[in-house]
Amino acid sequence: MPAKYAITFAASAVEDLEEIREWYRDRKVPEIADKIINQLMASIERISSFPQSGRVVPEFNLPYLREIISSPFRIVYRIDSNHIRVVMVWRSERLLKIGR
Questions:
Q1: How far is CA 88 from CA 20, 39, 67, 77, 79, in A?
Q2: Angstrom distance (rounded) from CA 26 to CA 42
Q3: Which of 9, 20, 59, 76 could, after both became Cys, cross-link 13 (CB 3.0–4.6 A)?
Q4: Cα(64)–Cα(72) distance, integer angstroms
Q5: DSSP 33-99
Q6: For residue 82, what pLDDT is reported?
Q7: How far apart are the first and last CA of the chain?
Q8: Distance of CA 64 to the CA centre of its chain
């Protein structure tokens, strides 16, 4: 079994997750919000063991900035020596922008 990387969340990723939860709750389907957040967190947990499994983010083409898709969301993370920092969780059809 590969060594697990420590995972932290940037403030922007925490805000993204809160906005996702809020969006579904505003539409009176909080159970869907809970299901999606749980799926996203499970995907994030998997990358702690397999950080290279995500693809390089095409908009930036930096080897340490990767993403996985947990449809319909993109989970963007940065790999440092033995640490993963989740930087954003965004709808997969949207392109990333510098200075978001």
A1: 12, 15, 9, 7, 13
A2: 24
A3: 9
A4: 23
A5: HHHHHHHHHHHHHHHTT-GGGSEEPTTT--TTEEEEEETTEEEEEEEETTEEEEEEEEETTSPP-TT
A6: 86
A7: 37
A8: 14
Q: How high is the pLDDT of residue 34?
A: 95
pTM over 0.85: yes
Q: What region does 99 belong to: left with phi over 0, alpha with psi -120 to 50, or beta?
A: left
Query: How far apart are alpha carbons 3 and 17 in whole angstroms?
Result: 26
**What type of residue sits at position 2?**
P
Decide: 64 and 80 in contact? Cβ < 8 Å.
yes
Written as tens digits, the pLDDT of the chain (100 aa) is 667 899 999 999 999 999 999 999 999 999 999 999 999 999 999 999 999 999 999 989 999 999 999 989 999 999 998 899 999 999 876 555 555 4
What is the dotted CATH code of the domain comprising 6-91?
3.30.2310.20
